[in-house]
Design brief:
The structure holds two protein chains of two kinds. Chain A has six helices and twelve strands. Chain A is an alpha+beta fold. Chain A folds into two domains: 103 residues, no CATH class; 118 residues, no CATH class. In chain A, the strands form two sheets. Chain A has a six-stranded antiparallel β-sheet with strand order 4-2-1-3-5-6. A six-stranded antiparallel β-sheet of chain A has the order 10-8-7-9-11-12. In chain A, strand 7 and strand 8 form a beta hairpin. In chain A, helix 5 crosses helix 6. Chain A is globular and about 60 Å long. Chain B is mainly alpha-helical. Chain B has one domain. Chain B is 84% helix and 1% strand. A two-stranded antiparallel ribbon of chain B has the order 1-2. The radius of gyration of chain B is 24 Å and the shape is globular. The chains are: A alpha+beta, B mainly alpha. At the A-B interface, helix 1 and helix 6 of A face helix 18 of B.
Chain lengths: 254, 690
């Protein structure tokens, strides 16, 4: 059986598995007898990638089928500070699994999205998961947090996504949230007003925000990067998802 | 043409109606049943529906047999001249009444069975037709719904006309009506409990706990949910309107029978003439229900209803001009039918997301579920107003129009009820269309049909929901007028047995009756809703058990045990009916035999008023909460997953047994109680404690 490496983002972990990405997503979201159910996000990692930080060979030895022939679902190679030890170039597709186990694969793009004017809302996913508003576009935000921090706070590597703000991106005080399901919208408006009118370029909305986000709120895709490289995984539009991945789209729209 | 000939015309109309229903049934069966997967999914639903119907009809057959024997025994004793001749034993009378009762129950069952039979075949064919076009899918589903509508009115008209021809007594038709109503009550209440047990359990575990979308085949309750759409909305609603339809006609026949000698026959037959006209109007009206590709199915259904009304009124006018009926009857029936349609459409105002009540309830959901409940409940209370005012206007207009034309006013009210229900063939056709397209959507989803098919099914389903809301308002208002006429019929039957009813609110016995009557609909509602929560609790445990013991179900590698949930829903629904059935049939008899005819009159009055109010409140509040949730799901106030959506889901869950279990069963309850009172009035008039 083929062996796969997965970099799970929820929680941050490197896992060896004999399951394909779709099977692993389903197993991770709904198929565990341990009842550890829920949304999952994970990268498939190039199986030839090695970093001495991880005891990869030991994990591979343990990753053998069960006695009854079932494939081994997961061997945890490492948890905590995993992302910073993986070269972004070794990351293959990003898989987004819904709460009920439907998996969508996103491919990396060579082109980063053009910077947009207005305000932005970022959900950091790994290694920490605050919800942040900012005047900076995604690339500048990554630069500030990872490469050229202007404050004491920085991380060695990061995965984050930009969430939709709708009318609030240009008019935080009066704009309509419409179909955006954010809790405590008044606080969000206040934070957006602060970054719009004050000197600060970013402001934390929620320091312990759950990175389990409704996929339908993702604006354009996911970003993953370290000091050396930033990679971008664009999210297809709702129309494309509906037409080409209807079952995933439906589960993700719940 | 003399009035007896009209009875034969009625039978001919009924036969034509049934013949068209049978033709449409075979036409539906000739359509493409779709892919193997779609047929497999449909077979699960068909099998579940058959299992439930078999259990239901087996239970009802036993009940009908027992009640038939009781009726045969009781009505074998003639108490009319107790003082002079004593009790006279007439076994023939008892046998006739029992036979009428059984035939009524049988006709109601056949209509429901035919509707179910075609619905569980049409659902998969509609989904398959939706792969080609909206137009074809709509035509198929509506014609399938028409099988129930046309079979129902056909059987009712034939049954009533034949019994009257054979016995010559309106009171015998009352037995027919009682049989139909008893079965309708149990079919509606049982179907309502079944459908909401499955719906709530499937949603709470599937959607809320696990995030599985609607109609996902991994949910063990998904088949039971789809079966529930059929047993609740096809068999249940069909039996419900069948019962109101027959009861309204019987009430007027009984009033006609109390006319002066020489006039009796004509005025007893007139309600059957109105039913016959309505049958022909419905046969013609359904021809106009068509939709073009890209057109609006809801508009097509409404057009069919309005054209049917116009045909009916035109036919009435012809009879009036040719002096077959008096102008008073023409106007009373016209008032009734116009009021019925207007009330139906006002119900739509409170449950349609284009208007303020639904939008406002959705908006306040951003503040949590408590505010959602309060707002929806309040609009539900307000929604009573237009319907009650409509019934008041219809009552007063039909009364004074009749009086102005030399007829008893109460007879005019009864004619208005018959007029309202005369187009039941069309109304039921539109209503039965709803669960068929709802099922078609489920099958499209479970069979993995494409997005385009599901979107077409959504368009059809949306029109079905609107038709359902209109039918509920219509049937509740019709029941209100029907029971007013039945109330008068009860008074006439009591009077015929030598007692003038004296329903004075200064009489403590009457007050006791009024209060007991007013108490009954809320108690009945509570029993049904508690049955839903009790059964849903059991089914939730079963669904959780399946998911926990077989993780492969959610992963899509193992099939759920659908039959277990279907069996639980069926068993739970049927075992919950005993107490509500006793309340409907036994309680009025206890009040009558213990407190006497005056108290029973007060009892009926109390039950009618709270029954109508509760029925309207529950049907409209439930529909409003449902659509407020759907409105948010279109992307308003945060859309799915938002706090507003979570609050609206709570509202929708509370509203489910309101709108589909208790609310629609209440009109049948008050009809059954009124029929019990009228049927047993001659005996109660003789034997009562107070």
């Amino acid at each position: 059986m083929e062996t796969h490496f997965y970099l799970s983002l929820l929680p941050e972990a490197l896992i060896v598995s004999m399951l394909s990405p779709e099977e692993f997503g389903s197993y991770y979201a709904v198929g565990s007898a341990k009842k550890s159910r829920g949304q999952a996000m994970f990268f498939e990692v190039d199986p030839s990638y090695r970093n001495p930080y991880f005891h990869t060979e030991e994990a591979l030895k343990r990753c053998v089928p069960h006695e009854d022939g079932r494939p081994k679902a997961s061997i945890y190679v490492s948890v905590y500070r995993v992302l910073e030890h993986i070269d972004p170039a070794a990351l293959m597709d990003l898989h987004l699994t819904t709460q009920d186990g439907r998996t969508l694969a996103l491919k990396a793009s060579d082109n980063l999205p053009a910077g947009e004017d207005g305000l932005h809302l970022y959900q950091e996913i790994v290694p920490v998961s605050p919800l942040v508003v900012s005047r900076l576009d995604p690339v500048s935000f990554y630069d500030l947090i990872v490469k050229n921090p202007t404050s004491l706070v920085s991380v060695p590597a990061i995965t984050f996504t930009e969430l939709q703000l709708g009318e609030l991106a240009s008019d935080p005080e009066m704009g309509m949230l419409n179909n955006l399901p954010y809790s405590n919208p008044d606080h969000l408006r206040q934070c957006l007003s602060d970054v719009k009118t004050k000197y600060v370029s970013t402001k934390m909305v929620d320091r312990t925000h759950s990175p389990v986000i409704p996929y339908r709120t993702i604006k354009n895709g996911f970003y993953v990067g370290n000091q050396d490289k930033l990679r971008y995984y664009p999210m297809p539009s709702a129309e494309v998802l509906r037409a080409e991945n209807y079952r995933w789209f439906r589960s993700a729209s719940m | 043409m003399d009035y007896q000939t009209w009875l034969y015309v009625g039978i001919a109309g009924g036969v034509i109606s049934i013949a068209v229903a049978i033709y449409l049934y075979f036409w539906v069966m000739r359509q493409d049943p779709g892919s193997e997967r779609a047929q497999k999914v449909a077979s699960w639903i068909r099998s579940g529906a058959n299992t439930y119907l078999k259990r239901l009809y087996t239970a009802l057959a036993s009940l009908a047999l027992i009640l038939g024997i009781v009726i045969a025994l009781i009505f074998s004793f003639n108490f009319e001249n107790l003082a002079t001749t004593g009790i006279v034993i007439e076994p023939g009378s008892g046998a006739i009444m029992a036979a009428c009762f059984v035939v009524g129950a049988l006709c109601s069952a056949i209509a429901g069975y035919m509707g179910m039979r075609v619905a569980v075949e049409a659902n998969v064919r509609t989904a398959t037709a939706a792969q080609k076009s909206l137009q074809q899918a709509f035509r198929l589903s509506f014609y399938a719904g028409s099988v129930l509508g046309l079979a129902m009115v056909g059987l009712a008209v034939i049954g009533m006309s034949l019994i009257f021809i054979l016995t010559g007594e309106a009171h015998a038709v009352l037995g027919f009506s009682f049989g139909a109503s008893t079965l309708a009550l149990l079919a509606k209440a049982g179907g309502g409990i079944y459908t909401k047990t499955a719906d709530i359990a499937a949603d709470l575990v599937g959607k809320v706990e696990l995030g599985i979308p609607e109609d996902d085949p991994r949910n063990p309750a998904v088949v039971a949910d789809n079966v529930g759409d059929n047993v609740g909305d096809v068999a249940g609603m069909g039996a419900d309107i069948f019962d109101s339809y027959v009861a309204s006609a019987v009430a007027v026949m009984l009033l006609g029978a109390s006319f002066a000698v020489g006039m009796q026959y004509k005025y007893t037959v007139i309600p059957l003439i109105l039913c016959t006209l309505g049958t022909f109007a419905s046969l013609l009206g359904i021809q106009f229900v068509k939709v073009k590709e890209g057109g609006k199915p809801g508009a097509a259904l409404n057009r069919g209803t309005i054209i049917t009304c116009l045909i009916f009124v035109a036919a009435l006018l012809v009879l009036s001009l040719t002096e077959v009926i008096e102008p008073g009857i023409f106007w009373s029936a016209t008032v009734g039918i116009i009021t019925g349609v207007v009330i139906g459409f006002t119900s739509d105002y409170f449950t349609n997301d284009q208007y303020k009540p639904v939008q406002e309830t959705a908006r306040v959901s951003t503040s949590g579920s408590a505010i959602t409940i309060i707002t929806g409940f309040s609009y539900g209370l307000i929604s009573i107003v237009p319907s009650i005012i409509g019934v008041v206007i219809a009552t007063l207009l039909s009364y004074y129009v009749a009086v102005g034309n030399g007829l008893p006013g109460i007879y005019g009210i009864g004619v208005a009820a018959v007029g309202m229900l005369s187009i039941s063939g069309m109304i039921v056709s539109a209503d039965a269309y709803g669960p068929i397209v709802d099922n078609a959507r489920g099958i499209a989803e479970m069979a993995g049909m494409g997005q385009e098919v599901i979107e077409r099914a959504d368009v059809l389903d949306s029109a079905g929901n609107t038709a359902k809301a209109i039918t509920k308002g219509f049937s509740i208002s019709a029941a209100a007028l029907t029971v007013l006429a039945l109330f008068a019929a009860y008074a006439e039957v009591v009077k015929a047995n030598g007692i003038d009813l004296n329903i004075s609110l200064r009489d403590p016995i009457v007050i006791a009756g009024v209060l007991l009557g007013a108490m009954t609909p809320p108690l009945f509602s509570a029993l049904l809703m508690l049955s839903v929560t009790h059964n849903a609790f059991d089914m939730i445990e079963e669904i959780r058990r399946q998911f926990n013991e077989k993780p492969g179900i959610l992963a899509g590698t193992e099939d759920p045990d659908y039959d277990r949930c279907v069996g639980l829903a069926a068993h739970g629904a049927l075992s919950s009916l005993l107490l509500p059935a006793f309340l409907a049939v036994g309680f009025p008899l206890i009040v009558g035999f213990v407190l006497g005819p005056d108290a029973l009159g007060g009892f009926l009055g109390g039950a009618i008023f709270t029954g109508v109010i509760f029925a309207l409140l529950m049907a409209n509040a439930g529909g409003l909460w449902d659509n407020a949730k759907k409105y948010i799901e279109t992307g308003k106030f945060g859309g799915p997953g938002s706090e507003a959506h979570k609050a609206a889901v709570v509202g929708d869950t509370v509203g489910d047994p309101f709108k589909d279990t208790a609310g629609p069963s209440l009109n049948t309850l008050i009809t059954v109680m009124s029929l019990v009172a009228s049927l047993f009035a001659p005996i109660i008039a003789v034997f009562h404690l107070f």
